[in-house]
What we know:
Chain A is an alpha/beta fold and 339 residues long. Chain A contains ten helices and nine strands. The model of chain A is unreliable at 1-11 (pLDDT under 50). Chain B has helices spanning 20-29, 35-55, 73-78, 114-121, 135-141, 150-170, 182-185, 190-201, 220-223, 269-280, 301-318, and strands at residues 2-3, 80-89, 96-107, 130-133, 143-144, 176-179, 207-210, 230-234, 253-259, 288-292. Chain B has one domain (2-16, 51-318): TIM Barrel, CATH 3.20.20. The model of chain B has no long low-confidence stretch (mean pLDDT 96). By secondary structure, chain B is an alpha/beta fold.
Amino acid sequence: xxxxxxxxxxxxxxxxxxxxxxxxxxxxxxxxxxxxxxxxxxxxxxxxxxxxxxxxxxxxxxxxxxxxxxxxxxxxxxxxxxxxxxxxxxxxxxxxxxxxxxxxxxxxxxxxxxxxxxxxxxxxxxxxxxxxxxxxxxxxxxxxxxxxxxxxxxxxxxxxxxxxxxxxxxxxxxxxxxxxxxxxxxxxxxxxxxxxxxxxxxxxxxxxxxxxxxxxxxxxxxxxxxxxxxxxxxxxxxxxxxxxxxxxxxxxxxxxxxxxxxxxxxxxxxxxxxxxxxxxxxxxxxxxxxxxxxxxxxxxxxxxxxxxxxxxxxxxxxxxxxxxxxxxxxxxxxxxxxx
Amino acid sequence: xxxxxxxxxxxxxxxxxxxxxxxxxxxxxxxxxxxxxxxxxxxxxxxxxxxxxxxxxxxxxxxxxxxxxxxxxxxxxxxxxxxxxxxxxxxxxxxxxxxxxxxxxxxxxxxxxxxxxxxxxxxxxxxxxxxxxxxxxxxxxxxxxxxxxxxxxxxxxxxxxxxxxxxxxxxxxxxxxxxxxxxxxxxxxxxxxxxxxxxxxxxxxxxxxxxxxxxxxxxxxxxxxxxxxxxxxxxxxxxxxxxxxxxxxxxxxxxxxxxxxxxxxxxxxxxxxxxxxxxxxxxxxxxxxxxxxxxxxxxxxxxxxxxxxxxxxxxxxxxxxxx
Lengths: 339, 323
């Protein structure tokens, strides 16, 4: 892991302040949804599906450039669930039966049923492909070991810590391959990190294994849970940047930083990804201003609260546009204030 | 020594024909079937769940909560002053519930669950218990724009739940689970919960206080004085010493959660029997019920069925029925 600021810090528009980004996933275009369904029914081959996934990835890279986002993502056109995707590629996992997430939504919750190992790189080709499409930095995107553990059933390790550390070794190999492939940013998501606050030390220990040798700037996305229960201890998570859902909680967690200052870079969620309604640019800008009370502009990155995969394509774009426009407003304010 | 289930049963399965309810809900959302057609499918799924639980050898059944989107949904839909709010993660699970949104005085006719309970009871000759959410759990997970304090909110929810208990009692319920994970998640509120349970108990139907997800170690002695007939304890989700302290409950029945309802690893009969035998050192057999730790809906359907079968078998062995 590098110092904050990163030895590979890219040149960005906006003078390197308030760099805009997104959390990782975007809505899949209709043709890809249909293709995935056809693939699941055995009506479409893997090669044909991958071709459409590359097409959709290319489109999302163009959209992000057109929106003028600073740090891009590949949009995860090749993924369904963030844990199941890796579980399918790692040894030691089996696919479980359907369980309900909420309402009438179900998913196949994976089972850690053997010794976890990474037989081959899982995301490097997608990163390399996406990065080849743009001069702007594209983030390498991984799911963290604690979340991989917590969102899986566990049958084959005696303790949760044992399983988390085994997962960390497998994810470390992937992160180091992304690093070697030139990723300037590697994001290792831990949305489950507050599920059991008493296990925060396990999450920190496991993340330390993943990030120990990386040159890239490291990020971890955390969302939807009791952030207060893990703060300020979560500042010990060995990453450079925490990527936090904030607007969904009406920015209440910023109050925690009055007592214990926030010491990392922060990607701040300023548009809610689980609402169809669009925030106004001014509302989103106000979110950035709230964040600036605690984190300086060169370490604050405006973005949506979470991945946008649950939103239709046009809504994803509209939400991102608000992030960019709100950031422009605040950048101008900062520029005016510094004159 | 009896066996029972707690909470929700898997609504669908991976087996052929096992997704009728899921498909019906999708079709209902698209306007392709009406409320009556959906209700028929829901009744069918309820009937199947009851038959299946009964078939595994479990003694005391429930209706599987097939119509419940989450622990609060039936009440948030039916009560005045409450609606269903935004999604939030449900404790330490990777599942979500809609937060009850309280925007006015909570009111109910007390008949929210009566129809479904009566239907479920008609599907079996076994004893079948009802269930409601706990007042503290509802109140601590709700978004409240009406009541001024947590105390006021808990009292209002408890009064509404007491009306539901009265309604269920009139419909023939002889035992009602009160699912109250908040009591062990936030044990600092135990006195508030006790006052709420006094309101529930006044309705005059025997209650089973079901705690789960978190250990009850810190509040065990205090739980013993709650005005309920049964106390449910989860001894698998986290490390706990309660198995060695079960003698604090006097004449109350203990519903011991010995089957992990949130992990697919299948317990062995011997493993469960040993836990039951450990409990029997401190509790008489007629005051010990064995159960999963919580709702089996956290598991795929096929695993839930297998776990219940092992539970029933372990109870028979521990009870001396099988040599």
